[in-house]
């Protein structure tokens, strides 16, 4: 403890051994951590590839370090102490011939303090930052000075809490000794696409030779990366094509409409379908006639009128004697669908059931019975629909609204709700996925090779695009005045409260405060409040009041983000718009502009804006086109996050990038088709290497 020069109140530094030290239990701990990364068999380690590399081949003088850059130095410890202000930290000063360097740790072990004993010579690696007291390294890595330097770049792997890079590296190297690195692709194919052998690529990436170009490795332009990306894309294309082939072999009940319900529904509509709606309705109708399950994505921008298209499909299915399930991601949205569909279909004699998690046990049981007996022809609800207990008599069509909001697992569960028919054949329900998040072509092509896509590319007539205004929140009073004018003109407004990601309670509090404040600021206006903590009947009651015009301004958290359709609302105010993502802002803006009135979306922001927030707000200001927004969103966020696969914990593509590797995507597609026709064995070998444990995921 000689290095502790300032120690108050006797809070001794805890002696906690680093996670990687080897005792028998520790071994299994490391194994558990490895498992968490999906690293079980040698094969898994082989393709657990570095996210970056560090250059530890050189020692540089302290004076040559620049802020923002990483570097490695060797120096002598001049001072080292534990400070307690502003918080407990380990602080040290070291020097070499060229200059001095400050080091700081906010969490540390006593072993680190020992390493930093005054007079010790140490090797330090880290990023130089400009701190309050001048340049410093925070949490640098420290080892003893004078040991041999590596001759090649050091890989840095994706890891998890408590699993150090050295232990992970050791585990990978060990696995590489026994793993099968045989090429899955033949020499002719490698030649044709200019690919290097798999084993060579793997060796280069785990142990870059000294002469390899640092930037090629980092930018992933090296032939080794190219090979890996190609392999990954090929595996993806293969499994999507296989999924499609499997689907075509499945049995679905063909659903042909008669001359009654569908025609009656069309005849009663208060509007004429747009040409785009007619076209997609026709595509869906044809799919439903087939004896294998439809798997179609209906995409259409917010407000383009997807619900009626779903209703037409439902009418066709019901008329053919099948049951239809329509599932929405929130109760508010499910309720709205229920009201709308009931309005259209109940007068025509269709039996509708309503099922959500918040129903009383009794009501749920009643609904369950009507569904199981087949009496309920149309079932509208939330996730509750996919609970195991819900049994359908003859489910023929599933509609998922805002499909990207559902987890992969949920989608999978629903598609298994088919009917087991006497005689053994199982009918899989047709499936219609609806989304207002338009998926850019490149994405649709790769992620959804087994999904047919229909697009509504036109809005109903008479809509003028929503005008977007960006307003600093210092001009709040002007916004309130705008609300007041709009209400006096007989229209309605939403006021969306800021997203508070770190705390739901705080978010709720903000909504309550905003409600109070607006009520006072607009004394003659009826201000309502809706948020996720309300009971569902309370939420439903408030939405009903807003729909009927008994509430003028609805203060809301993001519970109203998707799907809500109140045509008389013409003003959307979003507070702290800089905290929302692009897709979310587009969804929010889509809540207005649904009637004939000129609508306005006010995005209030607080300065200073980050670079990315500025880009997002600009995108919102510049365009109302959902496809363009989606394209920019993809650019800013990357495909994994875009598709919501991040929630499922496993992005489909780890190495390839659909935008920058578009050429490889095309080649992989071509080769996948060829292999499936002429060399199934090769296809299977390849899939086995790349798709361990992911097959289910791909099927959705
Ligand atoms: P979304 O595609 O966002 O789900 P909705 O289905 O909620 O859109 O439709 C938006 C609004 O437009 C609804 O009020 C709906 O009744 C109306 N609508 C749909 N199709 C038409 C049409 N062809 N002409 C006029 N209004 C339409
Ligand atoms: Mg909708």
Automatic annotation (TrEMBL):
Swiss-Prot/TrEMBL catalytic activity: Couples ATP hydrolysis with the unwinding of duplex DNA by translocating in the 3'-5' direction; ATP + H2O = ADP + phosphate + H(+)
Matches recorded under Pfam families: DEAD, Helicase_C, RecG_dom3_C, RecG_wedge
GO biological process, one term: DNA repair
EC numbers, comma separated: 5.6.2.4
UniProt xrefs under InterPro entries: ATP-dep_DNA_helicase_RecG, DEAD/DEAH_box_helicase_dom, Helicase_ATP-bd, Helicase_C-like, NA-bd_OB-fold, P-loop_NTPase, RecG/Mfd, RecG_dom3_C
Top-level division of the source organism's lineage: Bacteria
Keywords, comma-separated and alphabetical: ATP-binding, DNA damage, DNA recombination, DNA repair, DNA-binding, Helicase, Hydrolase, Isomerase, Nucleotide-binding
Region (Disordered): 1-28
The Helicase ATP-binding domain, residue ranges: 287-456
SMART domains, alphabetized: DEXDc, HELICc
Enzyme class name: isomerase
Keyword Lipid biosynthesis: no
Gene Ontology MF terms: 3'-5' DNA helicase activity; ATP binding; ATP hydrolysis activity; DNA binding
Domain Helicase C-terminal: 489-635
Protein function: Plays a critical role in recombination and DNA repair. Helps process Holliday junction intermediates to mature products by catalyzing branch migration. Has replication fork regression activity, unwinds stalled or blocked replication forks to make a HJ that can be resolved. Has a DNA unwinding activity characteristic of a DNA helicase with 3'-5' polarity.
Family per record: Belongs to the helicase family. RecG subfamily.
Protein name per UniProt: ATP-dependent DNA helicase RecG
Annotated organism of origin: Eoetvoesiella caeni
């Amino acid at each position: 403890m000689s290095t502790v020069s300032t120690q108050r109140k006797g809070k001794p530094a805890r002696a906690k051994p680093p996670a990687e030290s080897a005792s028998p239990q520790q071994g299994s701990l490391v194994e558990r951590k490895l498992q968490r990364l999906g690293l079980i068999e040698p094969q898994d380690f082989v393709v657990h590839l570095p996210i970056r590399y560090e250059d530890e081949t050189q020692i540089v003088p302290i004076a040559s370090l620049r802020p923002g850059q990483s570097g490695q130095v060797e120096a002598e410890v001049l001072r080292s102490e534990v400070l307690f202000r502003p918080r407990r930290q380990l602080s040290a000063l070291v020097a070499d011939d060229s200059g001095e360097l400050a080091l700081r740790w906010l969490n540390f072990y006593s072993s680190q303090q020992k390493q930093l004993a005054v007079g010790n010579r140490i090797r330090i690696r880290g990023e130089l930052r400009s701190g309050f007291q001048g340049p410093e390294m925070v949490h640098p890595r420290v080892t003893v000075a004078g040991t041999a330097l590596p001759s090649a770049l050091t890989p840095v792997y994706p890891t998890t809490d408590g699993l150090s890079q050295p232990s992970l590296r050791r585990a990978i190297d060990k696995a590489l000794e026994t793993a099968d690195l045989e090429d899955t692709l033949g020499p002719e194919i490698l030649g044709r696409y200019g690919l290097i052998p798999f084993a060579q690529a793997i060796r280069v990436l785990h142990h870059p030779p000294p002469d390899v170009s640092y930037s090629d490795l980092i930018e992933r332009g090296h032939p080794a990366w190219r090979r890996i990306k190609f392999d990954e894309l090929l595996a993806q294309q293969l499994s999507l094509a296989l999924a499609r082939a499997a689907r075509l072999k499945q049995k679905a009940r063909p659903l042909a409409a008669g001359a009654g319900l569908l025609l009656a529904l069309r005849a009663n509509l208060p509007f004429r379908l747009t040409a785009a709606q007619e076209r997609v309705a026709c595509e869906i109708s044809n799919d439903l006639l087939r004896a294998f399950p439809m798997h179609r994505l209906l995409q259409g921008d917010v407000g383009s009128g997807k619900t009626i298209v779903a209703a037409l499909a439902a009418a066709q299915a019901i008329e053919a004697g099948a049951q239809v399930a329509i599932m929405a991601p929130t109760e508010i949205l499910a309720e709205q669908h229920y009201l709308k569909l009931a309005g259209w279909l109940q007068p025509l004699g269709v039996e509708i059931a309503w099922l959500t998690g918040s129903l009383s046990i009794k009501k749920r049981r009643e609904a369950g019975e009507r569904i199981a007996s087949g009496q309920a022809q149309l079932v509208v609800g939330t996730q509750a629909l996919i609970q195991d207990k819900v049994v359908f008599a003859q489910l023929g069509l599933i509609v998922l609204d805002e499909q990207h909001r559902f987890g992969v697992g949920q989608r999978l569960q629903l598609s298994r709700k088919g009917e087991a028919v006497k005689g053994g054949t199982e009918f899989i329900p047709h499936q219609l996925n609806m989304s207002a998040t338009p998926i850019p072509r490149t994405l649709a092509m790769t992620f959804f090779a087994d999904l047919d896509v229909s697009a509504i590319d036109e809005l109903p007539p008479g809509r003028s695009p929503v005008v977007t205004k960006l307003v600093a929140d210092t001009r709040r009073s002007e916004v309130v005045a705008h609300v007041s004018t709009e209400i006096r003109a007989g229209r309605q407004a939403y006021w969306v409260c800021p997203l508070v990601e770190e705390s739901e309670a705080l978010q709720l509090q903000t909504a309550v405060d905003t409600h109070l404040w607006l009520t006072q600021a607009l004394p003659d206006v009826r201000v309502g409040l809706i948020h996720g903590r309300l009971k569902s009947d309370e939420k439903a009651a408030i939405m009903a009041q807003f729909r009927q015009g008994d509430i003028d301004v609805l203060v809301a958290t993001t519970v109203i983000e998707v799907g809500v359709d109140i045509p008389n609302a013409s003003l959307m105010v979003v507070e702290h718009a800089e905290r929302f993502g692009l897709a979310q802002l587009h969804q929010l803006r889509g809540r207005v502009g649904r009637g004939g009135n000129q609508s306005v979306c006010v995005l209030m922001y607080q300065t200073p804006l980050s670079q990315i927030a500025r880009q997002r707000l600009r995108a919102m200001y510049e365009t109302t086109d959902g496809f363009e927004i989606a394209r920019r969103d993809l650019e800013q966020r990357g495909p994994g996050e875009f598709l919501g696969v991040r929630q499922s914990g496993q992005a489909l593509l780890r190495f390839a990038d659909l935008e920058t590797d578009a050429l490889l995507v095309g080649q992989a597609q071509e080769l996948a088709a060829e292999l499936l026709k002429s060399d199934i064995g090769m296809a299977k070998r390849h899939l086995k290497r790349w798709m361990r444990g992911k097959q289910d995921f791909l099927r959705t």
